[in-house]
Amino acid sequence: MKVATIGTGFIVDWFLTAVQESSGISCVAMYSRKKDSAKPLADKYGIDKIYTDLDEMLQDEDINFVYVASPNSLHFKHSLKALQAGKHVICEKPFTSTVDEFDILVDTAKEHHLYLFEAIVTAHMPNYLNIRKQLPRLGTIRMVQCNFSQYSSRYDKFLAGETPNVFNPEFSGGALSDINIYNLHYVIGLFGKPTGIHYYANKHTNGIDTSGVAVLEYDGFQAVCVGCKDTRSECITQIQGEKGFITMRSETSKCADYTIQIGKEKPEHPSIQQNDIALYYELQDFRDIFKIDDYERCLQLLAYSRTVMEVYEEARRDAGILFPADRK
Amino acid sequence: MKVATIGTGFIVDWFLTAVQESSGISCVAMYSRKKDSAKPLADKYGIDKIYTDLDEMLQDEDINFVYVASPNSLHFKHSLKALQAGKHVICEKPFTSTVDEFDILVDTAKEHHLYLFEAIVTAHMPNYLNIRKQLPRLGTIRMVQCNFSQYSSRYDKFLAGETPNVFNPEFSGGALSDINIYNLHYVIGLFGKPTGIHYYANKHTNGIDTSGVAVLEYDGFQAVCVGCKDTRSECITQIQGEKGFITMRSETSKCADYTIQIGKEKPEHPSIQQNDIALYYELQDFRDIFKIDDYERCLQLLAYSRTVMEVYEEARRDAGILFPADRK
Known about the structure:
Two copies of one chain form a homodimer.
Chain A lengths: L1 E5 L3 H12 L4 E6 L3 H11 L3 E3 L2 H5 L6 E4 L6 H10 L3 E5 L6 H13 L4 E4 L6 H9 L6 E9 L5 H5 L15 H17 L4 E8 L5 E10 L2 E8 L8 E5 L2 E5 L9 E5 L17 H12 L3 H24 L10
Parallel strand pairs in A: 1-2, 1-4, 2-3, 4-5, 5-6, 7-10
Antiparallel strand pairs in A: 7-11, 8-9, 9-10, 11-12, 12-13
Helix pairs in contact in A: 4-5, 5-10, 8-10
């Protein structure tokens, strides 16, 4: 995999660290509108080529994968361009702003038998995959709760009157898009699509949600997803079954530490020490799928991403949060 | 205060322990339909009189207070009878099944200048009262989460086909009435009446909620109240403000242990070791209010109870949980 990146935020830094840790993957180019924005990362990771013209980069035959980490609203446009240029794509979460955009990307990828991956760390974490295996031990599930709250480094600026992308509806920002999306992935990855979707958001005057709670109704149980960019808290996720419960003391992006308690027995601590590099596991999976050309697996992951996109869009609309992509 | 009890459940045992610990309060009689049901507790606490005829007990001039701890649906009838007989009343939570019933009790109490107290432990806990004082330090509140989950000792019987009172709509049972009511008191006692009320319940075929989540919408923040009688979990309550957050690692009925974290400073541990006897603090308050004849304070507490009753009834109806009292 010879990857080029789009975007220069801190997530790209993390991505490049994960690339460095992974065999069979290298980063060969970066795109940024301004060369200076990409230079520090290019220097840090020894990347020779910086493009300031995206079309030019997409013609570079040395590149076969594009990692899209631009502002949320541009994920669709950049991913589509890359696919149309014949490149495979790894796109950051949230995948797109709408299901319609998502479907266009998938259709384009399928048409050219190109790989299209959503860079959502949760779904690839060993602890998360183990939690899924443990679920039958909990008996009938009755309640799921996730809380992922992280005071945004840009929130002070936002309160002071600026509008950083992450709090800008024009860039498909907000707490649901940016942080609660991990909780949605966590829950939907375990339990599939809910039958009812509600989102109660704390909205700024510009219409963006700085925090909120999504209630996902399932047959026989409820899942509550809290995501906040305006406050801190302990991030705790619990899955409650009639026979036992799982408590995870970690963000749903990390799945770092969890215990299982069955009945009144002592809590078990089956969680493993995972690699600290957040994007490590997803990259291993993408590489392996690509290596053995397991396109079926790629489509499976896309089907799961689509369910998340459906819930995400419905939750967003339920709270009256509108993005430019809705006007298309 | 010379108290007579109605009911023989474990809560009466706790109440009598608290009476024993309190100066200025004694229990002089117990009512039970069957003498044998009350005898073990009467023996344990040295109570001489057991009545099997309620009207007879209410004529006993040695009694000035009645503690009502019958099944939920009977709180109204028993409290009303006691008030009409000229007795002061301490009524277990949930106060009544409807706001209409509540209003009749309050009107009757006022008419005769009788004291009427709701036995809700949360509102009288020192740690809870201290949390209220700390709230301004948290800045603008954005999110509140309560989880009180306790696997009911009667749930196995319920699953096996029996219908214990606590899971019977005829007795105004269910998770909202029995356990989530503590969370409602916790939140409403701190923040008053919400502007929006939603209850997503897991309902048994008999219509009762074995668990559920109430979302209370406030101006600028959300409060999420999870109450389960069909599963266990760690009971954790968090209050998230822009400047800091409070994490309480305890049921909202106990308020046993909490920490405050402001910004990125180290967590503070201001919670005190409270008396283990759950009903101790409320009894002290009732005794003191009665002693100095502070009827205003009694009415203040009733005003707060009414707000809880309004939210409780609206949440219950939102989930389509109907009680006999609704048909009146």
